[in-house]
Amino acid sequence: MKLLPQIQVAGGAEWLARTATQCLIDEARLSPKPGLVDSRGNGAHHDLTLALMERSAHSLTPTFQALALQSWQRPADIALRQTIGRLGREGEKQMMAATDGVNTHRGAIWALGMLVSAVAMHGGVGSAQQVANTAGELATLPDDAAPKVFSKGLRATRRYRVPGAREEAQQAFPHIMQRALPQLRLSRLSGSSETHARLDALMAIMTSLTDTCVLSRAGLEGLDVMQHGARAVLSAGGSAHPAGQRALAALDRQMLALNASPGGAADLLAATLFLDRIESPYTQSNSSCRTKRTAF
User: Fold this and answer.
1) Number of domains making up the chain
2) pTM (2 decimals)?
3) What is its EC number (predicted)?
4) Position 1 in a domain
5) Which residues, in sequence order, are CB contacts of 242 under 8 Å at separation 6+?
6) Hey, how many other C-beta atoms are within 10 angstroms of the C-beta on 183?
7) pLDDT the model gives residue 146
8) Residue 86 exposed, middle or buried by CB count within 10 Å (0-12, 13-18, 19+)
9) Are 112 and 274 in contact (CB under 8 A)?
10) What one-character DSSP code corresponds to residue 292?
11) Residue 156 has what pLDDT?
12) CATH code where residue 208 lies
């Protein structure tokens, strides 16, 4: 009997890790995404493929599981924040080894890592808003062991004076909670397929996100094209409607012409799918990211 709580924690951590991994894969396979790797091809990337994205996602499963185990029913404090930071950096090394040095999911490790830890802090349950709030609290705590280096994303936030992935997490993921998750569920209620609902959720993120991946590759012009193009898709009725599909195809052409890829939005879409899955663990659909949860 003494082993039961430990078994429950292990089962919960494993489920969270598998779910986070599958949401990364579901995001990668979703098509057609403007400028991004999907089932059609490499988008604006010369060094990424769908197979590489999926291999990268699988390499992160042990990291997500370790994050969940270390965070289970613990309070948000500096000790936990530093543990999460260390595990995230170790996970990044595993990812880079799996991809031969290609950065596939660095931003996703940050966003999904914080959310996996936050769910575990609630004992594997909780509403999306509760989880996002806890992740925000955790993200505001310092990690003194973090390397003092400037990533492309951080350089973009400094150059253009805009918020990036760090601020998105610290503010409890407003682009997920206020835009993507409501749009995902609205599109489903309107009768859209799961694919179209997810594309609409991606567009909702892209309407206002200051995506540092786009800024790094195409500057403010690229960001303006992304935001206006995403608004055009939703204004035309979304990706399920012919006019919305034409607007989405036009946006894809524009992003490719600018060599721009909204990788930050893609990371947040994967995180959106994860939070949606947390709130509806027993929902059945054709998507593997929404299969039945194992009891723990």
Assistant:
1) 1
2) 0.93
3) 2.4.2.52
4) no
5) none
6) 23
7) 80
8) middle
9) yes
10) P
11) 83
12) 1.10.4200.10
